[in-house]
Amino acid sequence: MNSTQNSPFHVPLLGKQTVLNFIILAVLLAVVMPATLDIFRLNLLGKYLSYAFVAIGLVLCWGYGGILSLGQGIFFGLGGYCMAMFLKLEASTPEATAIQSTPGIPDFMDWNQLTELPWFWEPFKSFPLTLLLIVAVPAAFAYIIGTAMFRRRVSGVYFSIITQAIAAILTILIIGQQGYTGGVNGITDLRTCLGFDIRSDAAKLVLYYLCVGLLLLALFVSHLLSRGKMGHLLLAIRDQEQRVRFSGYDVDNFKVFILCFGAILSAIGGAMFTLQVGFMSPSFVGIVASIEMVIFCAVGGRMSIFGAVYGTLLVNYVKTLVSENFPELWLFAMGALFICVVMAFPKGLAGLYDSKIAPWIAAKLGKLSGHSRLPFARKH
Q1: Residue 192, by phi and psi: left (phi above 0), alpha (psi -120 to 50) or beta?
Q2: Does 121 reside within a domain?
């Protein structure tokens, strides 16, 4: 017998159920939704899906690794701001800003009496470099945070509180540096990307499909990580960190890696959010946004990457539905939804499906197959 078959890490990476989950989600997002929703609602759905990137990263960090980050909005916002800076520079050509005191720079810089483009804005004149920075800047930031804390054995609730504090600090910094970041209003009035009007219906449809494609790719890569050796080690670190450490593994490096991976997913979501919504503001970086992202993951199921997507869609749909009809009650509704899920279904929607729905479907299919058996069929 092959020795790899006896290894605890030898598991099928793509089982039938996983393939079925991919197909169902792909058909739902790429076929059913575009066919049934108007372009406004489809664009709104694309906004929801940009949050799903964060929820998938939280499944790996929190569900598998036991690393509860209450600052994922940091990485979502950094990715969004990187994309917004490129789009803003594209919209701030000397011709388009001829009425400013200093043409060729973003309008909020001119309002704050800046006379030249800051040095850290210069790389965002290049689209390929912007795409690289969308990934590199949040990953580097996560690496610094992870290395600084995990090397000092900071974990659990202490890690969560510190990431929450960092999110608050970064929000205050963005708001305070209005001349460089747009301040409390953020970076707005984003119109084109590579010359294409991102506000048109055709562009919104293309961006939606781009978001779906990237999300499915993120799901695939995350599934491979969770089902491979990395996923098993993360579970072991979550449950018995000292035992894994004494077994010779560098626990800190694994925790830093998965935090960086979650940051990259969040940043991609932030970039897609900026493209589809047309602005980025510090409100998506702060504490409230970060806690909402944890709720998306908890409702979907913190051990299920597919559940994270459905949880994100459900929570945002409820949020939109309640806020459209009862604007003052949506925060209470979100809190009530979170409490109900935690109390009644601690494993989220994925746990509810596994414990209730899947057995019911299996029982029904078993009855149907039993009834369809011919009376003269040979018994084994």
Answers
A1: beta
A2: yes
